[in-house]
Amino acid sequence: MKVLIGVDGSAGAHAAVELAGRLLYPGTNQITLYCTPPEMTVRSGDPADPRTLEHMQELLTEAVFREAQQKLPPPWRNHVRTLVGVQRPGPGLLAAAENLRAELIVVGARGSGSPGKFGVGSVVRKVVHNSTAPVLIARPSPHATSPTNFRVLLASDGSAASRCAGEFLSQLAWPPKTVGEVIYVLEPQLSGPTPDWLEEQLVERETDSLGLGRFRPESEKPVRSERMAAWCGALPAIFLEQTPILAEGRPADAILRTIEQDGIDLVVVGARGLHAVERLLLGSTSEQLLTQAPCSVLIMPHGEQP
């Protein structure tokens, strides 16, 4: 698998490199580090020699690559490629991914100067909203207490995007003692731009007589659970020891609660719909997880388009 990692010397970029190093097999994967040289200016009023600024950019870029390589496990350090960008970081990463035919792009959730506790910078948004390859957005995990302690959550809705995400996971090298969980969320039959408590009152007072509950009938749950268990059997072995989670509510809310309760380090979600970009821009589950999840997020941009 060809993997492109965006680096800029920030803590977010270091987290991206470290996570990629944990999840990729040396020898069977090809890593390319991508860096756009930082813009250099001189604070004094004197004009700067362009050659001097160019030399400083080269030195800084080399230092960024050198530091990123040191964040990788020893088997990787002498087997990575480097690529210096000539465009701005977002468009440059996308162009490089296309040219290299990258099968995975890895970026830090927050690059240099990106604000927000769990927010993402403009470069990450640009890449996620336009990439045709899976994008792994790395955040330093607040849960992991040891290098072998890793928990991953696959959010499934039974769509082609979910199946694609499950297949992709078999290509990754899971650390020892990794725990894998799968969550399926039953959404309300009736939905709209209303608070949960108001929807609940509406269901109780008006829709029970029509045979419409807030969620699907209880009789459907065992069937859903059986289907989920069968589907999980095709996933990597780390997912076979845990009973699939069948939750009710709005998908993003249920997934975020599970992330917090179970100490998840990585959540995997497929961006689905007519087009992955449209779903993300319209405030989908993927978009909410991208901006609100305290852990790393792997987004599979596979929709039901032709």
Main β-sheet: number of strands, strand sense, barrel status?
A: 10 strands, mixed
The top-level CATH class of the largest domain is: Alpha Beta
Strand content: 15-25%
Largest sheet: spatial strand order: 3-2-1-4-5-10-9-6-7-8
Radius of gyration: 22 Å
Tell me the number of structural domains: 2
Description:
The chain is an alpha/beta fold. It folds into 2 domains: 1-140, 3-Layer(aba) Sandwich (Rossmann fold); 142-187 and 218-306, HUPs (Rossmann fold, 3-Layer(aba) Sandwich). It is 38% helix and 17% strand. A 10-stranded mixed sheet has the order 3-2-1-4-5-10-9-6-7-8, with helices on both faces. The protein is elongated and about 70 Å long. It starts with a strand and ends in a 6-residue tail after the last strand. Residues 273-283 have low confidence and may be disordered.
Give a summary of the structure in a few sentences.
The chain is an alpha/beta fold and about 300 residues long. It has two domains: about 140 residues, 3-Layer(aba) Sandwich (Rossmann fold), CATH 3.40.50.620; about 140 residues, 3-Layer(aba) Sandwich (Rossmann fold), CATH 3.40.50.620.
List the helices and strands and how they pair.
Elements: E1 2-6, H1 11-23, E2 30-35, H2 50-70, E3 80-84, H3 89-100, E4 104-108, H4 122-130, E5 135-138, E6 151-156, H5 160-169, E7 179-186, H6 196-207, H7 220-232, E8 245-248, H8 251-262, E9 266-270, H9 276-281, H10 285-292, E10 296-300
Parallel strand pairs: 1-2, 1-4, 2-3, 4-5, 6-7, 6-9, 7-8, 9-10
Antiparallel strand pairs: 5-10
Could you list some keywords that capture this structure?
306 residues, alpha/beta, Rossmann fold, ten-stranded mixed sheet, elongated
